[in-house]
């Protein structure tokens, strides 16, 4: 398979919900999915990148607009004979070189009609071509999709918390389905470009701290019989 497909050396030994030791450096991919490349969600994504880099992690920052030229099509009609996607754009390279090897994936999106941007949705949809059983190396792809830490940064005009509820739910389900760990959300309020910098909740500061602690912060999704001591912190 083309592309540098290997995870960070320690990743195989760390369940995604556990905190890796502070001195392990991990690989992260940030996908900034607004068509406004200098808009609010991109600003938040940049702050996450700064935090990850400050903590020593390796970060790839990708604009969905530069990767995707099309939605998913009918793979039966569209595939090349060897199983490759026939859509000529940068999705395959991004997916194989950055997404699959990443220990963590952070999606940045504006709220569009109470959901994610079409670009972010298309990124997830397009992965189908490679994890579907009809792709010759789908087992390796599925292996690469599993067990990541997943994060979300969102910008919206409306302030009501559940304006992003559908998106949070979608990402949490994605993390569950891929046996990953949903680390959390940073939500900034703004409409005009740069508005999030004026949000009194300081989402840019939150995003930077989110990046700094992305691979070390506690995250949990207990079942009733999960052994635990009743304290979350300390
Ligand atoms: C097509 C479209 C749909 C939108 N839908 C919503 C919405 O449902 N709720 C909301 O609060 N803001 C909505 N907005 C506003 C954006 O979420 C807001 O301007 C956001 O900060 C844009 O992020 P960006 O600068 O990263 O593109 C919408 C904007 C557009 C262009």
Write the layout of secondary structure elements.
Elements: E1 27-32, H1 40-54, E2 58-63, H2 75-78, H3 91-99, E3 104-110, H4 118-126, H5 128-131, H6 138-145, E4 149-156, H7 165-177, E5 181-189, H8 203-212
Parallel strand pairs: 1-2, 1-3, 3-4, 4-5
The structure holds flavin mononucleotide.
Flavin mononucleotide is lined by residues 34, 36, 39-42, 110-114, 155-158, 163, 190-191, 193.
* Anisotropy-based shape: globular
Strand-pairing-aware structural class: alpha/beta
CATH class designation:
Alpha Beta
Helical residues, percent: 25-40%
CATH-defined superfamily: Flavodoxin domain
Number of strands: 5
Order of helices and strands: EHEHHEHHHEHEH
Number of helices: 8
List unreliable stretches of 5+ residues.
none
Tell me the count of domains: 1
Instruction: Report the portion of residues in β strands.
Output: 15-25%
Overall average residue pLDDT = 92
Which ligands are bound? flavin mononucleotide
Distance between the termini: 43 Å
CATH architecture, by name, is 3-Layer(aba) Sandwich
Radius of gyration from CA coordinates: 18 Å
CATH fold topology: Rossmann fold
Strand order, main sheet: write it out.
2-1-3-4-5
Largest sheet: 5 strands, parallel
